[in-house]
């Protein structure tokens, strides 16, 4: 059964999920060429909608895909959240179009809201090599939230087969990067460590909000390049994402961690921030 809560907007036209399609000729389907956003809505309102759309515009610009007008994107996203009501995840997908030589030609924009996944509220992760990740090197896709998520999904599935909830991606240099769909942070006392954006990790909206609230609750922050041992020696570990918000990580490989008080403070402060912004 589909978790989609609303009609699917295909270029603004509402369609039942069963009939919402894009062309088999689209390079989004054929090559994974396109971009997307996932936004959390609370009580029918998207949290930090403009920041998400800014990132979508940046992704589309890097891929040379023209987007619908800003008011349309904002309206479609807000409408999906309102129709879903309560809490939901609003997803926006922009395909590459039907011409390999002209990105955006015949591009399709798809918007819908789906139910927020339920789970135990904690995460276990397996360190897993990610040789495809930029790991500090720049490419045409650096900073792009691209449809080409195959390697990330494969890493998640491999870690799930190994008995974990998800993967923790490790770069060719041995540097801790991010999860397939989340940012990672860890605490030593009341100091927060997290990989820096210059590694080519996603500029997560939730990560940015978490760093804001960390400063507000007097948690020091260090962004940089860290080996896996830095995580394994931490007092607390947590994930940050649209779906997970600020979520404790209770194991990294064979190393176990408690659901610590500082992570709880950050999660509570994140909830307060959301309430202040969306009501």
Describe this structure in words.
This protein has 2 domains: 8-114, D-amino Acid Aminotransferase, Chain A, domain 1; 123-278, D-amino Acid Aminotransferase, Chain A, domain 2 (Alpha-Beta Barrel). Helix content is 29%, strand content 27%. The chain has helices at residues 27-31, 49-63, 70-84, 150-161, 205-216, 228-232, 261-278; strands at residues 8-10, 13-15, 34-42, 45-46, 88-95, 109-114, 123-129, 166-170, 183-188, 191-195, 220-224, 236-241, 245-252, 255-256. Strands 7, 8, 9, 10, 11, 12, 13 and 14 form an 8-stranded mixed sheet that branches. Strands 2-1-6-5-3-4 form a 6-stranded antiparallel sheet. The model has no long low-confidence stretch (mean pLDDT 96).
In short:
The chain is α+β, with helices and mostly antiparallel strands and 279 residues long. The chain is built from 7 helices and 14 strands. Strand 12 (236-241) and strand 13 (245-252) form a beta hairpin.
CATH class categorisation of the largest domain = Alpha Beta
Number of strands: 14
What shape does the CA trace take?
A: globular
The fraction of residues assigned to DSSP E strands is: 25-35%
Number of domains: 2
**What's the CATH architecture of the largest domain?**
Alpha-Beta Barrel
**Share in helix:** 25-40%
User: Helix tally?
Assistant: 7
Supply the CATH superfamily name of the largest domain.
Answer: D-amino Acid Aminotransferase, subunit A, domain 2
What integer is the average pLDDT?
Answer: 96
- For the termini, the CA-CA separation is 31 Å
Largest sheet: 8 strands, mixed
Return the CATH topology of the largest domain.
D-amino Acid Aminotransferase, Chain A, domain 2
- Structure class: alpha+beta
